[in-house]
Specification:
Endonuclease III, domain 1; about 300 residues
């Protein structure tokens, strides 16, 4: 029987410049009994990532799609769940091939721009419906493929009004039928908007890391990764694994960058892809300066490695 061995850290709404404490992270996999399914040592890798992630805020922890509504509009989830769901949907639609930091800027511009137009609640279905595609595009022009996304948002808003009573749907089939919404967005939306855990939201970081750690076999795309992970990963971890590993991929195991000297997976023999030339070398001043310019403040993690 699996149990959770650590208490979840509560995360209160915060501004991007007001981060303190540790991110809200999932508890470890039960450490005293080897899980009966899944690839060898997956639970050890998972637990080690949890420990590292407790030492830094990654962009996903404040500017990721799941956090976005509360970041730009603190308290919205309790104050207006319907508005929260809509803002989460828009954040997910803007996120494709766009960094969290850029997505945050676009969401903030859209929300505050609509407040300035006289809508006290800012970004809502009712405030977006009167906008033209060109007006939407002007707010979101920093994100990738903004012209296409402006069209998707405009058409999605019309569908939500006409077909779903102004709210977002609560089945994966209906969600992915919306313009510009794929399975990753759909499963994350269900988990965070409706508390429905029917699948794993797999982005490029989770896809890349799962293949590197041999959690999947010859998965060619995120959808294949999702299908393979769902075969063995206990369902209780489906909603945790995306933000956990996205943050790890943003700050530690960065694409095309060797940060193995600050990652404990290599030192403990849990990552066969670790660059052995960097293990145990130590962190000099130039290396420290380079690490300080990355997407997360790694000072707590670096201090532990001293």
């Amino acid at each position: 029987m699996r149990t959770r061995s650590a208490k979840r850290i509560k995360l209160e709404p915060f501004g991007v410049q007001e981060q303190s404490g540790s991110p809200s992270l999932p508890p470890n996999v039960f450490a005293f009994a080897k899980p009966s399914q899944g690839p060898p040592h997956w639970h050890e890798v998972y637990n080690e990532v949890v420990k590292m992630r407790a030492k830094f805020w990654a962009p996903v922890d404040s500017q990721g799609c799941e956090r976005m509504p509360e970041t730009i509009n603190p308290g919205v989830k309790l104050r207006s769940p319907k508005t929260f769901r809509f803002q989460l949907l828009i954040s997910l639609m803007l996120s494709s091939q766009t960094k969290d930091e850029v997505n945050f800027d676009a969401m903030k511009a859209l929300h505050q721009g609509l407040i300035a137009k006289g809508y006290p609640d800012g970004l809502t279905l009712e405030s977006v419906l009167p906008l033209t595609e060109k007006e939407i595009d002007a707010y979101i022009c920093k994100v990738g493929f903004h012209n296409r996304k402006a069209s998707y948002i405009r058409n999605t808003c019309l569908i939500l009004k006409e077909k779903y009573g102004g709210d977002i749907p609560n089945t994966i089939e209906d969600i992915v039928s919306l313009p510009g919404v794929g399975p990753k967005m759909g499963y994350l939306l269900l988990q965070n908007a409706w508390n429905i855990n029917s699948g794993i939201g797999v982005d490029v970081h989770l896809h890349r890391l799962a293949e590197m750690w041999k959690w999947t076999k010859n998965a060619k795309n995120p959808e294949q990764t999702r299908a393979q992970l769902e075969e063995w990963l206990p369902k209780e971890y489906w909603s945790d694994i995306n933000p956990l590993l996205v943050g790890f991929g943003q700050a530690i195991c960065v694409p095309k960058a060797n940060n193995c000297d600050i990652c404990t997976l290599g030192a403990k023999g849990l990552c066969k892809s670790a660059n052995k030339k960097l293990l145990g070398v130590g962190i000099g001043q130039k290396r420290l300066e380079k690490l300080q310019k990355q997407r997360a403040d790694l000072s707590l993690l670096l201090k532990e490695l001293e």
